[in-house]
Structures are given as C-alpha cells and as structure tokens.
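[Q] Does anyone have a clean structure-token version of this?
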Amino acid sequence: MPGILMRWLTIFTIALMLPLAACATTRPATYLVETKGPYQLDTGDTVRVAVYGDEELSDTYRIDDSGAIAFPLVGPVQVRGATTKDAAGRLAAALANGYMRNPDVAVEVAEYRPFFIQGEIKNAGQFQYVFGMTVRAAISTSGGFSDTADRSRAIVYRRQGDQMVKGTVDLDFPIYPGDTVVILERWF
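[A] Here you go.
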C-alpha cells in the first residue's frame, strides 16, 4: 500500500509542475545584469557643475578616460563610479582645500554616455542614450529589426564594478548608458 501511495503522490506532483515548467519558458530570463541603484558616472558622461557664487567655475565638463573631471583651480577630480551627489561632494572638498571657504556645489548629468547596439538590426553602432530607455527603444533608435531578427529577446552586456556581465532579457528591459545590446538571429 505505501508503494502505491508514493507512486500516486509522485504522479500528482509531476502533474502539478508541468504547467509551471511551460510558463517558465515563455519569457526570457533576466539574470546577472542589475537594474537597481542610483546612476553612477563614468567615462563619456558630461556633467553640469554649478558652483554657487562663482560663475566662472560653473560649466559643463566631460568625464575623461581616467574617470576624472579636469576642474579649474584644483585639477583632476576622480568621479568614476560616483553618483552626482558624491561627485558634488568631491568637488566641494577639493575647492575647500585652500581655494574657497564653504563651497556649495551641485552636479547633474548634462549628457549620458552612449549605448551600443549590434546584431540583427538595420543600423548597428553607437547611439545617444535617453533616460529611461528600454531594449525596445534602443532597437527603434537603431532603425528597427532586420528581417531575420529574434523579436522576443536580446542580450545585454553591462559593466558592473570590475566585471562585464551579460543577461538574456526581454524587450522591455531597461538599458543604461554604456550598455551593449545584441539582437540575435531567430531560428526558423
């Protein structure tokens, strides 16, 4: 009797799990690529710096290849990986070190670094990022799908810390500046 009961319990469990297995394969999995946290500055971003009380220092600055802003009076200030609030604090600290008393500094992103898209699309390349973009918007920006494109998923490569990670995502996945989006060929 216990053998029959175990057999029926196993069959019942498998019958309950089959519909769940089918649901799991209908949508591409999102993995490794993080979407949380505040925006972090990096090479290629342009920031607008406002130093209250000093119009000559208030200007737009591009973050160079070393991840720094070449700021008048104080020289390069490292901002790679910093939020705009952190960058404002670093600039204020540099100015307070012998140049200004109690500097009040604000930093905002003036222009994001570009994103890249390649694969089965009409125009591969580098494009200007717009805040809140998704994979679908990136595809549209690049001219749309090619005739042989997989129209349900994409691969996103993103730098996270010191690593380049990738994830298979759906078309409504948010992208960030600096991401590389790859549209794969569909299998007929």
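[Q] Thanks! Anything notable?
[A] The beta strands are 46-51, 59-62, 68-71, 75-78, 105-111, 115-119, 125-127, 154-160, 163-169, 180-183.
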